[in-house]
Amino acid sequence: MSPATIYDALIVGGSFAGLSAAMPLARAAKKVCVLDSGQPRNRFAEASHGFFAQDGVAPLTLKAAGREKLAAYPTVDFVNDEAVMARHTQDGFLIETLRGEVLRARKLVLAFGVRDHLPDVPGLAERWGGTVLHCPYCHGYEFLNQALGVLCITPMSVHQALLISEWGPTTFFLNGKDMPDAETLSHLKARGVQIESAPIATLEGEAETLDGVRLMDGRLLPLAALYVATRTEMTSLLAEQLGCAMQGGMHGPVIVVDQIGQTSVPGVFAAGDITRSMHNASFAAADGMLAGVAAHRSLVFGPLGM
Ligand SMILES: Cc1cc2nc3c(=O)[nH]c(=O)nc-3n(C[C@H](O)[C@H](O)[C@H](O)COP(=O)(O)OP(=O)(O)OC[C@H]3O[C@@H](n4cnc5c(N)ncnc54)[C@H](O)[C@@H]3O)c2cc1C
Q: What residues does the FAD/NAD(P)-binding domain cover (predicted)?
């Protein structure tokens, strides 16, 4: 690629959403660049579950397969680097990377994902993606009918505790947070959820496995897995730099997009975890496909993409 290359579309983030967005553009023989820093959110898990026809495949294997399929299209370039700055130009957009590369494109698709803020509980971070988890649809079946825990972080944690009890006997760890109101307690009781109000000292177990939660009062509550509704933040400031409208989501801020992934900034599309509160690889891939098609249509028909 020469420095003068202007891509039809530049995709920031090359995982479920980004690689899916690139495919319809590649299949329309558009010049596409996928810029990716190689840190998908689910890289901490050994297996990814629920993805169509790929249940149980390792996250990085899935991503590599997606890249391999795209690499068959000669108009697709991959740049392994991190976007650090984005701005508008006369004919589209310009991105600067961490290593100092400058990339230009007529359209942008943002698909850079979110990162999780893990609560500061000793022994929790090193089990993230193994026995400390956020989503039972992704990693619940593996712990079916075993002792499960939910850590109280936000008001959403109550909802999580009510849901997790579908998979196994559940304890809701308040860990210093206030006792829920009477109505909430009656819902939790109806689902058989136990409440534990003592603060947590540490999670115990060999390596990634979990034997249980050690409480500050010395008791060890045996547990196979602990669920945590993390707060999320975007991995990049690009959307702010471009002036994309944002709004508060259930776990953290999300980029406002319409039904086809167009942001509030013409020519900038977005897909995946950065645009929604329900986070899942299949949703991200579907969002990416939509955004890729919309970006292509806007190349053909102009900003409205009709
Ligand atoms: C522990 C864990 C386990 C999970 N397990 C499952 C599961 O089993 N099944 C399931 O369906 N979902 C699972 N999920 C959810 C799933 O990981 C996300 O919904 C999905 O990864 C979102 O895809 P995405 O493409 O939006 O973002 P990501 O997959 O996070 O990809 C974003 C990509 O953008 C890159 N990037 C970030 N910033 C920049 C930048 N500035 N410049 C260039 N590149 C950048 C990153 O390196 C990354 O490659 C899990 C999540 C977690 C945290």
A: 7-136, 185-288
Give, for 21, the enclosing helix (H) or strand (E): helix 16-26
Domain total in the chain: 2
Q: Which residue has the tokens 């943002």?
A: 110
Residues 217 and 283 in one domain: no
Question: Which amino acid appears at position 303 of this protein?
Answer: P
pLDDT for the residue numbered 306: 44
CB 227 within 8 A of CB 144: no
Task: Summarize pLDDT for 19-48 with one digit per residue, the tens.
Answer: 999 999 999 999 999 999 999 999 999 999
CA torsion through residues 255, 259, 261, 265, sign: negative
Q: Is 11 in the same domain as 35?
A: yes
Shared domain for 126 and 215, answered yes or no, is yes
Cβ of 35 below 6 Å from ligand 1: yes
**CATH code assigned at 77:** 3.50.50.60
Tokens of 265: 């900034």
Q: From the CA of 40, how far away is ligand 1's center (Å)?
A: 4
Testing ligand 1's pocket by substitution, the residue of 37, 39, 41 carrying the most ligand atoms inside 8 A of its CB is: 41
